Amino acid sequence: TNQWFLPAVRGDIPPGCAAHGFVCDGTRILVFGGMVEYGRYSNDLYELQASRWLWKKVKPQAPSNGSPPCPRLGHSFSLYGNKCYLFGGLANESEDSNNNVPRYLNDFYELELQHGSGVVGWSIPVTKGILPSPRESHTAIVYCRKDVGSPKMYIFGGMCGSRLNDLWELDIETMTWSRPETRGTVPLPRSLHTANVIGNKMYVFGGWVPQSAGGEISAPDGEWKCTGSFSYLNLDTTEWIGLISDCQEDKSNLLPGPRAGHCAVAVGTRLYIWSGRDGYRKAWNNQVCCKDLWYLDTERPLAPSQVQLIRATTNSFQLKWDEVPTVEGYLLQLHADSPVPPVAGIPGTGVPETSVLSSQGGCSLHQSPQSLPSIPYQEMKVDHPSQTNNLIPNNVIEGKEKVAAPENKVAQETMKNHTDATGFKESNAPSLLPVCTSSAQTSANVGELHDLDKQSVNPDASVSSTVSSTQTMVTQQAVKTESSSTNGAVVKDETSLTTFNSKSEAAETAYVMPSTRVNIGQTNDSQSSRAPQRPLAPVKARDRRWYDVGIFKNNSAVVSQFYLLPEESLNINSKTEGADVPDYRLLKKQDLFPGTVYRFRVAAINGCGVGPFSKISEFKTCIPGFPGAPSTVKITKSVDCIHLSWEPPASPSGNILEYSAYLAIRSTQLQENPSQLVFMRIYCGLKTSCIVTAAQLSNAHVDYTSRPAIVFRISAKNERGYGPATQVRWLQGKLTVTHS
């Protein structure tokens, strides 16, 4: 949500401090040392359990071979495994905090942590090699290559009378210090900068650097300034690469301004930079604190999960896919198996439409090097259900033969509302963007039940208002309780109204990724003046029928139309790498047809561009005249069974003759093709409830598509036959599956 909030903490709340050490270990945070009130230096250690917002002052055991760390500030505090590594800092030789006698430190400590909470104690490792020189306000990171090698800690820069730009390496396994040889242009000497590891790169940003143009190291009383320069060190090749130089002009304010004493944190492949001081002079009273938040996307996002079906109607789909961390949107495309006629030409006029990417609070993200308005889409609405309703439709008939029923792999996840508008840029270089935040606090809706002994889930409670209640739909829901797993009896599919298949992209054709930029820029609820341009890469003949559905802010969408390309853009030879697509607002749109198979794929977008597409999913729109899916499914747990109940479909399309309930069971077919579930019928009758026995549950298949769940399907039958099924994923807590 990009919204700040102030948690109500309790416990041993530490005093405010500056220049402290800080590490994050799962959901706990450890803070050591720093300058506290009245200029006093500290060597206290505090632990915050962020899941409970509980502070605790911890007292580690003293090292067996020396004294514990003295009070200090400007030290480094790095986490690797279950140990924190403390190096250097600045101590005060005077016992009077008003009479500061600075002493630079280069001592090295190891702090062993207990699992989950608490610490064991300090130790002073015996190291080999030459210790780095004493310093404070340096940085230290830990990196371990995935293929070979032991973890290594890298110390860069700092202050010891004058700023430093030396690089030191500590092999943590052998405890050996060394000075690695580097290539490339070494960043200027600096202190109060930040260093973060993403992949195999250490990104260094900001800090105090020499004022002189030549960049030579100044004397202790020389002039210094804040910098906005930005570099990274390839930790595998030890080569420095400059991204933003110290003298680079930024008249449009598209880059973070010069600063020191800021903080930076890596979340996935994204680097966030917050605050700092932007002083250019030594005089302390001329420094101004920054209040801006920026992020850097260092690479394109990963491919999302396959598109999953939440609801299907005769002419629309409600879809979702798993979120990809730190992305700005998703490009959804479909492929129609039935021929879609090309458009002879682009219409001369277009009706302005509301953009799906709207900003809140008037904040918009600005991107480098330029911002373009967003793509507007009509009726490409994003749904944010607090309880995710996922579906799998199936037509089933009586029978005892075990067969694989088409499976729609879906799971309920909490949907996060990303409320900021943004810009996208595609390039090989990382993209640095500012983040707009709001001070208002919001609470997330968690769409699952944690205690289902007496509770129920209503799969229709949060249906998007864009879907009519009279339409035939297919639903899936997820419920959770802590219990043993389950099983049932099997049926054969006759006619699937909506089917789901997993197809690897590699099994289709080699899809060529766009190579020029995709820009989605500043936008409010107002209409956009022009659309961003996304390139059409050269494609094979089979690829020509992939059509854009839209670019969506969140990981769900209601699809009833897609955009048709002009006839000339369907010619393989007419579009080359980097060519522009027409204005989306001027393109004709095609409605979805009943009883038609459509294939979907989705790609995530961040500041570096469009990532790879997901595997392909295939769904079929419903056929008119069949009953809708049952709704308001409830699961009540008893000692030796569970009680399953539901309500009739909102659109029966005639008289309901019977209901059938099915349970996904274990089978050898499932081992060969995990995406193709095998179902056993456990109930058939007019009642809208049934009991699932412990014997049936003992044979259940546990689906690990996302979270462990037992899968049920319930469908209704009218004069024309069975309609789509409601699929229920019964989420399992501490899973204890009985195999008999």
What does this structure look like?
- The protein is mainly beta.
- Among the domains are: 16-125, Kelch-type beta propeller (Neuraminidase), CATH 2.120.10; 126-212 and 222-299, 6 Propeller (Neuraminidase), CATH 2.120.10.80; 308-337 and 545-566 and 583-621, Immunoglobulins (Immunoglobulin-like, Sandwich); 634-731, Immunoglobulin-like (Sandwich), CATH 2.60.40.10.
- The protein is 1% helix and 35% strand.
- It contains 2 helices and 46 strands.
- The strands form 12 sheets. Strands 28, 40, 41, 43, 44, 45 and 46 form a 7-stranded mixed sheet that branches.
- Strand 2 and strand 3 form a beta hairpin.
- The longest helix has 5 residues, at 668-672.
- The chain is elongated, with a radius of gyration of 30 Å.
- Residues 344-428, 438-543, 571-581 and 735-740 have low confidence and may be disordered.
- Keywords: Kelch repeat, Nucleus, Phosphoprotein, Repeat.
- Residues 478-488 have a biased composition (Polar residues).
- Residues 462-477 have a biased composition (Low complexity).
- Residues 455-488 are annotated as: Disordered.
- Its main location: nucleus.
Q: What is the compact description of this entry?
A:
The chain has 2 helices and 46 strands.
Looking at the overall shape, the CATH architecture of the domain at 126-212 and 222-299 is 6 Propeller
In terms of structural class, how would the helical and strand content be classed?
A: mainly beta
How much strand? 25-35%
Radius of gyration: 30 Å
Fraction of residues in H or I helices: under 10%
Low-confidence segments, given as residue ranges, are 344-428, 438-543, 571-581, 735-740
Number of DSSP-assigned strands? 46
Name of the CATH homologous superfamily of the domain at 126-212 and 222-299: Kelch-type beta propeller
Q: What is the mean pLDDT?
A: 74
**Secondary structure tally, helices:** 2
Largest sheet: 7 strands, mixed
